């Protein structure tokens, strides 16, 4: 048995046995090193795990995780919901439209889908249920709308992609994700309005419209957060990593002094929670370094890429197959694991066909976003169904419906790369090509 195949079999077998993905990656890489190289090369394990996380841009990940937790607990979602309701007003599907709008804005603060799903679900589910929306529909809508956080900058997933793929400008990725993220969110609007009107959900005559001026003033600190982060990046005032520090600082100021929802005791608790989540992420990244080093040294990733090229020499055919593969992976794994496992295999294919790495990274992110609310794993859906107090399987029909609508946005970005690349090119960032 070749070392390539054994490495993949050990990794896959460990996953099937329920071993956490981080340790499955480490075991697979170690097996490949022992059989393909030499047992003496196990001495590189410590160096590889350290080198995988000893990268300056990765500092942004725990900081943006903390930012998401702070804004989730600071009462930001409630102020944004009230402002969105004032903008949209009482109408069929109005609360559904509010959900999409608030999730898009929240995505510009945290970069985390599950955090946004929790914050929005806590505020919106009671009012949507009162207005006549079925709980399974509401939970599926919030889960799908919050998945756009992986595209709207600052995105934790795009930060990791910029580390895995050499030479990709993170600022270009952030800018490239904005329009596809908005497009993915807008793809939900028409179906939500149509379904609400058809089923008579949310009687406009019984709704209330908050005062626009008052709700805008209360929401202004929350609305300023994405402007501060993106404006600072565009002006060159700070780097993406420094933007994470600014976001945490601003979130603390808003939560403690403006909305007054956070106490110092709660801040301490949030620091601990962010540390735990960040630790899990960093363990995955560090042990994936063993798998990546072994796969690169043994030539496993090149062999897999050559096998995929043998299926077809047509770029569009392979691109569609890759998108299906990433979508299936998104249904089972988290975004970090997908980028660490699949991207090294796809880099040779990107180089062979000359696919733009920024555009390709956005396509992967859109696919992973869909996977976040598509069964069987569907982490966003797990969050919203738990808050709604319903079983996960009750939402499957609605989740698949929203999956189809967001796939239409993915197809548009595949066919028209300019949707993703126009803004970074306009801002003067290095978009790059192979």
UniProtKB/TrEMBL annotation:
Record keyword Cell division present: no
Keywords recorded for this protein, A-Z: Cell inner membrane, Cell membrane, Membrane, Transmembrane, Transmembrane helix, Transport
Domain TRAP C4-dicarboxylate transport system permease DctM subunit intervals: 11-419
Pfam families the record matches: DctM
GO cellular component: plasma membrane
Self-association state and partner proteins as the record states: The complex comprises the extracytoplasmic solute receptor protein and the two transmembrane proteins.
Family: Belongs to the TRAP transporter large permease family.
UniProt-recorded name of the protein: TRAP transporter large permease protein
Species for this entry: Oceanisphaera profunda
């Amino acid at each position: 048995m070749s070392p390539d195949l054994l490495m993949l079999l050990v990794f896959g077998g460990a996953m099937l046995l329920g071993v956490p993905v981080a340790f499955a990656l480490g075991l697979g890489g170690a097996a490949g090193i022992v059989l393909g190289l030499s047992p003496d090369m196990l001495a590189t394990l410590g160096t590889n795990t350290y080198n995988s996380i000893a990268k300056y841009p990765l500092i942004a990940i725990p900081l943006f995780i903390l930012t998401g937790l702070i804004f989730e607990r600071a009462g930001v979602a409630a102020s944004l919901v009230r402002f969105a309701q004032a903008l949209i007003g009482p109408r069929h599907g109005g609360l559904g439209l509010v959900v999409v709008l608030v999730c898009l804005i929240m995505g510009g603060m945290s970069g985390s889908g599950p955090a946004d799903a929790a914050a929005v679900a806590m505020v919106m589910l009671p009012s949507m249920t009162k207005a006549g929306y079925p709980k399974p529909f509401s939970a599926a809508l919030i889960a799908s709308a919050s998945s756009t956080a992986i595209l709207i900058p600052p995105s934790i997933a795009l930060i990791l992609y910029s580390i895995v793929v050499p030479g990709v400008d993170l600022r270009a990725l952030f800018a490239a994700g904005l329009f596809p993220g908005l497009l993915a969110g807008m793809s939900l609007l028409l179906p939500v309005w149509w379904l609400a009107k058809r089923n008579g959900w949310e009687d406009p005559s019984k709704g209330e419209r908050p005062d626009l001026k008052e709700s805008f003033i209360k929401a202004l600190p929350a609305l300023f957060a994405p402007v501060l982060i993106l404006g600072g990046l565009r002006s060159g005032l700070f780097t993406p990593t420094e933007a994470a520090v600014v976001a945490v600082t601003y979130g603390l100021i808003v939560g403690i002094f403006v909305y007054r929802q956070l106490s110092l005791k709660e801040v301490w608790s949030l620091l601990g929670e962010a540390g735990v989540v960040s630790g899990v992420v960093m363990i995955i990244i560090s042990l994936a370094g063993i798998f990546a080093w072994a796969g690169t040294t043994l030539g496993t990733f090149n062999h897999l890429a050559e096998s995929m090229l043998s299926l077809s020499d047509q770029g569009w055919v392979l691109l569609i197959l890759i998108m299906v593969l990433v979508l299936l992976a998104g249904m089972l794994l988290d975004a970090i694991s997908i980028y660490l496992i699949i991207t090294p295999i796809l880099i040779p294919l990107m180089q062979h066909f000359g696919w733009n790495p920024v555009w390709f990274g956005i396509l992967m992110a859109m696919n992973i976003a869909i996977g976040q609310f598509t069964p069987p794993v569907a982490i966003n859906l797990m969050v919203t169904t738990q808050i709604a107090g319903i079983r996960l399987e009750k939402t499957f029909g609605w989740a698949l419906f929203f999956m189809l609508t967001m796939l239409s946005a993915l197809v548009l970005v595949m066919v028209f790369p300019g949707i993703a690349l126009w803004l970074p090119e306009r801002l003067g960032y290095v978009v790059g090509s192979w």
